[in-house]
Amino acid sequence: ILVHMVDMAGTEMRDPIEDYEKINHEIYSYSDQFMIKHKLLVANKMDLPEAKKNLNRFRERVKEDIIPLSAHTQEGVDELISRLRELLCQENSQEK
Fold it and tell me: How many domains does the chain have?
């Protein structure tokens, strides 16, 4: 399971879409070595001012399910844990 966490606030003058695409390119250039069965995409720093605007722009470009989260306020952490638990259970049942 890969949890891909993106800084949605764009701190340090970064572009969340560009960051996401760069990391994806790196990951999938090594796809032979990484057997990624499941991926969770997490939009972090949702408590910061630019995050909501960036998330809307991100959703227009990236057509994947996204879990909005703030590590600072803990908003969305329960959903992330729940989704991870579901995926782990799926993987365990497939291995049996």
Answer: 1
